[in-house]
Structures are given as C-alpha cells and as structure tokens.
Amino acid sequence: MEEKIDFERLRKEMVRHQIQGRGITNENVLSAFLRVPREEFVPLEMKNFAYDDCPLPIGFGQTISQPYMVAIMTELAEPEKKDKVLEIGTGSGYQTAILCEIGCVVYSIERIPELAERAKQTLEKLGYDPEIIIGDGTLGYQENSPYKIIIVTAGAPEIPKSLVEQLDENGRIIIPVGDMFSQELIRGIKRKGKLIREFHGGCQFVPLMGKEGWK
Ligand code: SAM
User: Fold this and answer.
1) What is the number of structural domains in the chain?
2) Which residues contact ligand 1 via a Cβ below 6 A?
3) Which of 73, 75, 122, 127 has most Cβ atoms within 10 angstroms of its Cβ?
C-alpha cells in the first residue's frame, strides 16, 4: 500500500528551515507560505519532492522556483492587502497563489498557453481569483497599470522599459537580471519617475523571452 505523505508537516518544516531559517521575517509572507499547498502546483510524479529545497520541472522546459526564492522575492516586494501586483511568468501559479493569499489583486502573464491554462485551473480549484493573461509579459499589461508591485520570475538581460513605465510611484519591481544562466536579484524602487536599484545576490532563473527580453 502506498504511504500517505503528511504535506502539512512538510510545509511547516519548509517554512521553519528553508524560509525563516534563512532570515525571512515578514509575517504576511510566512503565513501565506503556511497556507498555500505547494504540492498542488507540481506535476503528479513530483509531489513527493514538492517541499524540497530546490526548483522542480513543471513541463515545457520551465520550473516552479525554489521555495526560498519565492519567499525572498515576495518579502522584497513588501506586499500588503489590496496592493495591485503584476507578475510576469505564471509558470505553475505558486507565486501567484502566495500573492493572492496575502490579499493582493494579482494580474499574472504567462507566454506558454498550456502552463497558463493549467495554473488557472489549479488556482481556481484552490479558490484564488487572479487574472491570468497569455502573452509577452516583457511588455507588461498596460490596461491595469500602474502597479504597486511587479514581480518577474524569469531572468532578464535588462529591466524592460515597459515595466518601469507601468510601475507606480514608490512601487517596487523585483527582477533577476543577468545572462541566460545566472542573474543578480534586483529590487528597483520608483522615486520621482526614476528607478533606484538595490542588489540582493545571485540567482538562477529560466530566461525571460520576449520583445524586451531574450529574443
Ligand atoms: N512563478 C512561477 C511559479 O511559481 O511556478 C515560476 C515561473 S518559471 C521560473 C518562469 C516562467 O516565466 C515560465 O513559465 C516561462 O514560460 C515564463 N516566461 C518567460 N518569458 C516570459 C514572458 N515574456 N512573458 C510571460 N511569461 C514568460
């Protein structure tokens, strides 16, 4: 008989060791991580590894990011209830769910239609209600701009100009910038129309493809 996995215990351990243990303190972020069932966002054959300290494949050459990476990006964004957030790279929808759980109003863009559709179904099943858009996220989503927060979950050659334009005054953009294989995690804060950049260490993301990304 197959052994039943105690996902709730694994989730608590992940939060304690991988997230709090590495210095994440934002209560909104920690409680969202305790509530979102990560096992729902990974393919069936990966469920046993859902709470491992690494990214996992989700098909189409893409990944669900490492839990800690989702946590640090979310903490840097400083999300509050009702904040309007644009996410680029829906992927599995896990980061989207964390933002929804915090109470943000989330618009999320994914370029691979099959991933967007699957994420939409998972999010609906769990009772989250973000707007998922299929398209090139490097161009942002003008219709609902400006955004308090923009989170880009794929590695960019530079910060897309369209995204900076669609960021609100005092808004934050969190984005990995570098080459195709490794990047630096950047937080840009918009002050008087200009982007002030902070650097938050090395990371590795799949490439951000698109008109203002990798061609
Ligand atoms: N946030 C995701 C999660 O929690 O599962 C991780 C996303 S994965 C690391 C990066 C995603 O960005 C991929 O699904 C990829 O297809 C998508 N992507 C890459 N370039 C894009 C673009 N220009 N617009 C929208 N999505 C893009």
Assistant:
1) 1
2) 62-65, 88-89, 91-92, 94-95, 109-112, 115, 136-138, 153-154, 205-206, 208-210, 213
3) 73
- What are phi and psi for residue 156, nearest 5 degrees? -105, 150
Taking only the tens place, the pLDDT of each residue in 169-185 is: 999 999 999 999 999 99
- Distance (Å, rounded) from C-alpha 106 to C-alpha 197? 23
92 classed as catalytic: no
This prediction's pTM: 0.98
Residue 213 lies in a domain: no
Domain assignment present for 215: no
59, β-bridge pairs:
62
Range of the domain at 68: 7-203
116 Cα: distance to centroid of ligand 1 (angstroms): 9
- Mean pLDDT across the chain, nearest whole number? 97
Q: Is residue 168 part of a domain?
A: yes
